Amino acid sequence: MSSTEVSAIEELTNKEYKYGFVSNIEADSLPPGLNEDTIRKISAIKGEPEFMLEYRLKAYNHWLTLKEPHWANVKYPEIDYNSISYYSAPKKKPQLKSLDEIDPELRNTFEKLGISLEEQKRLSNVAVDAVFDSVSVATTFREKLSELGIIFCSFSEAVKNHPEIVKKYLGSVVPYTDNFFASLNSAVFSDGSFAYIPKGIRCPMELSTYFRMNAANTGQFERTLLIADEGAYVSYLEGCTAPQRDENQLHAAVVELIALDNAQIKYSTVQNWYAGDKDGKGGIYNFVTKRGACRGVNSKISWTQVETGSAITWKYPSCILQGDNSIGEFYSVAVTNNMQQADTGTKMIHLGKNTRSTIISKGISAGKSNNSYRGQVKVSRKAENARNFSQCDSLLLGDKCGAHTFPYLEINNPSAQVEHEATTSKIGEDQIFYLNQRGISTEDAIGLIVNGYCKEVFKELPMEFAVEAQKLLSISLEGSVG
Amino acid sequence: MMLEIKNLHVNVGGKEILKGIDLIVNAGEVHAIMGPNGSGKSTLAQTIAGKQDYEITKGQVLLEGKNLLELSPEDRAREGVFLAFQYPIELPGVSNTNLLKTALNEIRKYRGLEAIDTMEFLTLIKSKMKLVELEQSLLSRAVNEGFSGGEKKRNEIFQMAVLEPKLAILDETDSGLDIDALRIVANGVTKLKSKDNATIVVTHYQRLLDYIIPDFVHVLYNGRIVKSGGKDLALELEERGYDWLKEDKELIAG
User: Which of A203, A341, A432, A458 is deepest in the core (most CB within 10 A)?
Assistant: First the structure.
C-alpha cells in the first residue's frame, strides 16, 4: 500500500463521528436494575393489558436460565445487566396531533441528523414513525394509510388498540425462548413499530422508522412486528444514527416479519450507530434478532442492510421458508473500521417445496477491525427442489484488518441445489493510481471503488435510501478505504 | 513550452531505468517516443503521470513551467496531464459515466469552475463518444470490466476527449488493436489535436504513426534518448529495426 493511500486512510479514520451530539431533553427513566419489579413497572407505565405482562414475565424467567452466548467472533467486556436502566422516555409525551407539537429540542435533533420530519412530510412519500429513545413521538401519514386498512403505529399503541393481532403474532417468529438477547428483549422491550397490511393491499408508500438512542446509560430494546396478509405488499425502511457516548450502550432489538400467502415484505436497514472512537472506546453493542417467516405459498421476504456503525454488530436477518414456492433474499453491506467488530450474516431455512433463497454479502474491513460473515443454509428433508445461491465477498482496506467467512450448510434433501461463492480482495494500488490520474483524490477513489463494489446491494434499496447509504458509506469509509 | 524534461533520472526497485532524459514538447506538437522493449518508454510515461514508488534521483519535469514532480498524481491530472494506460484498469461496479463526471468535476473545481450541469455533461459525452465510435452501452457499464482489448483502448481515448488535457500521453495505445480499431483510435486522437495541446505517443511499432503523424520522433534506448528526428525516422526504424542504433549508442558510450 502506498504512503498516500495509508495517509488518506489514516486521515479518514481520524475523523470524529459526525452525528455525535447529545440533546438536552429531560428523560423520565427507571433506575438501573433488572428484576420482576422492573418489568411490572415498564408494563404499568405503558398501561399494558395482562397478556403482555404475562409474556414479559415468562420471558424474564426464561432469560434467567440462559447464559450470554459467546460463539460469535467478537470480544467485549462483560455486560452488567443490572447497571442498565430499562426504561427512558422523553418527559413530554402527550398524544401529538401534528408535527408542530413536537418538543422543539427533539425536532432540532432530527434536523441535525438530516431527518427533518417536516421535510419528510412535505417532500417525500414516507410515513415516519420516529422512535426517540423509547417512545414514539410522531407518526405521520397514518390517516392516509388507515383509509386502506393499513395499521402503522408504535408497538405500544398496537398493544392497546389491536391486542388480538399482537397476541396472535408476537413471538410467533422469534419466540421468547429463542436466544439470550431475544429473551431479554421480550422481557423489557420498550417500544418499536408495528405494521399490518390487510389482504390484497399494496402499501402505497415506504414505511419508515428512524431510531435514535439518547438518554445516557439506557439500553434500548426495540420490538418490531410487521404482518403482510394474503397478497399484500410492504416496503419498510429502518435507519439509525446515535449520539456519541463514552460508555457502551446495549441494543438488543427483535424484528419479526410475517408474510402470508402471496405476500411480500421488503425490509431495508441503514445502520450508523456510534462505533466508538478510533481506540475502540465507547460505541453501541448491537445484538439484534431479525427473522421473517414466509408462512404462505409464493410469499417473499427480502432483507437489505447497510451496516456501518456500532462497536459490535451481532445480527443475522433470516428467513424461514415455510410456504411452498416462497422466496428469501438477503443483501448486505457490512463495513467495519477502526476497532469495530461485526459478526453478521443470515439464515435461510428451507421447509417448503420449491423454495428459493439468495444471499449477497459484501464485507468491507478497514483499520484494525474484524468483519465476519456467518451464514446458514438449511434444507429440510421435505423441502423438495430447494435452491440457494450465496455470494460472500470481502474487501480489505489496509493490512491490519480481518475478514472471515463462516458458511454452514445443512442439506437433508437430495434434490436441493446449493451454490456458495466467496472472494476476498484488496483495493489495488493500480486502481487508485488510475483514478488519481483522472484527477480524483485517493479518498474519493476509494469511495468510488467501494461504492462500485457494493452496487449489487445498493440497487436493492429504495432510491432515497440508496443515496443515504452511499453517503454513510463514504462517511464511515471516510475512515476506512476512503 | 508545454513540457520540458531536464536530465531526468529514475530508479524503479533500486535499478536505474531512466538515465538522463531531455525532452521539449511545444503546444500544437505530436511527439513519438519509440524504442525496443525495456528501453524505459512506459517508465517515462508513468513518471510524468506521477506513479508512486518511482524514485526520481535527478532532473526536472515542467508543465508550462510548473514543477510537476512536486504535485500529486491527481493534481498533475488537474493541471492537464492525461495518461492513456497501456493496460487500462478494471473498476468493478464503477460506471464509466460516474468516473467521468467525478473526474471532470474535480478538474473543474481545481480550475475554479463550477460543477458541470447534468444535461450539459450528457451532451458532452454524447458528442465525444462519436469521436471514438463508442457504443452508448459502454457508458453505463463498469469501467473496463469485460471490455475487449479494443474497447478498453477506445475508452481511454474517449476519457481523454471528455477531460480535454493539455498534455496527452498515449502509452502503447496501439498494442492489441486490429487495423480498424487502430484507425478509429488514431482518428480520435488526430481530431483532438489543437494548437493549444500536445501529444506524446509512446509506441513500439511504426504503424500507429501512419495514422497519427508525428512532428518529432525520439528513439529511447537503455534509458536515454539516442536519436531524434522527423517522421522519416520512424520509417527508417521500421525498415532497419533498432539494432543499428544500439551500435551507434555503444559507440557514443564508448
Answer: A432
